[in-house]
Design goal:
About 35% of the residues lie in helices and about 15% in strands. By secondary structure, it is α/β, with parallel strands linked by helices.
């Protein structure tokens, strides 16, 4: 039996971006993205491309999203000597391998994390090394970041690709609130993530890729109207940048949906965002009990 056949529920969704990255170079060479590790892993675990990469728009959206995350991580590495990156809900992501390849010898520490069943799978594929450590984290647990060992003297970037929309509103709010609290002593702190609008959350089971997930109960749970609304959770977060590239680069229909949604609501339908902890002079906290 293939090692991935036992994946059920949200963990099964990790096969969608893996399949997309593995096919990127062959199907969409003009996007100038190749992930050789994803190609190797997809072959090793026998990913069903007909199931998880049948929709070309979803594949292009994942490629655009991966390019955005790679860029902001590389820029953070260029700004800060020997930083630490903590990847939340890593799945079978190969972001560490891509960053290491592009780092030109610059040193950094990388921590991959996910649920125990996913970490068990990762450890059969990705060996830890002198730069990368893999740990078990369940973001539904209270005070989850207290278990992440990060040197206070280092700059820190949290990355959450394809994750926060699957969390309950309470868990998603806690992730951003607790990250600002637990890593307050970091020399610099950024948080890169992608988010779905409430409109996208309401229609998530209509998404071509999610329809392929065996468990019909798997759907987006948390919708964020605007990235800047996270200031309602904790005033220490400010938005450095946002990008709708996963929509605008995915094809004419997703680009049109994004444009119409922006016209009607003034907000993004689906986007990537980069947060930064603001300076200590503004380091005050404001929390809300629910989603912004």
């Amino acid at each position: 039996m293939s090692r991935i056949e036992g994946l059920r529920g949200v963990p099964e969704t990790l096969l969608i971006p893996l399949a997309a990255r593995a096919l990127a170079h062959r199907r969409h060479p003009r996007m100038r993205f190749r992930d050789r590790e994803a190609e190797r892993i997809a072959e090793e675990v026998q990913v069903d491309f007909d199931r998880y990469a049948a929709d070309g728009r979803s594949v292009r959206g994942v490629i655009a999203r991966s390019r955005w995350f790679d860029r902001v991580c590389l820029e953070f590495l260029a700004r800060h000597p020997e930083p630490t990156f903590v990847s939340l809900g890593s799945g079978l992501n190969t972001m560490y391998e891509r960053l290491r390849s592009a780092a030109e010898g610059r040193r950094f520490r990388w921590i991959d994390s996910d649920l125990p069943e996913v970490v068990s799978l990762r450890r059969t594929i990705f060996p830890d090394d002198s730069l990368r450590t893999t740990i078990e984290l369940d973001l539904a647990d209270p005070n989850v970041f207290d278990r992440v060992d990060v040197a206070e003297s280092r700059a820190l970037m949290l990355v959450a690709e394809g994750l926060v929309m699957y969390l309950s509103p309470e868990a998603a709010v806690a992730v951003f609130r607790d990250a600002a609290r637990c890593f307050a002593a970091a020399r610099a702190l950024c948080f890169a993530f992608d988010y779905a609008s409430p409109s996208m959350v309401a229609r998530s089971r209509q998404h071509a890729a999610l329809r392929k997930i065996k468990d019909d109960s798997v759907a987006f749970q948390w919708g964020l109207p605007r990235a800047k609304d996270l200031a309602a959770i904790d005033l220490r977060w400010t938005v450095l940048e946002e990008s709708s590239a996963p929509m605008t680069c995915a094809g004419p229909l997703p680009a049109a949906i994004e444009a119409v949604h922006r016209i009607l609501t003034g907000r993004r339908f689906y986007a990537c965002a980069l947060l930064e902890r603001v300076a200590a002079s503004r380091d005050s906290q404001g929390e809300t009990p629910g989603s912004p």
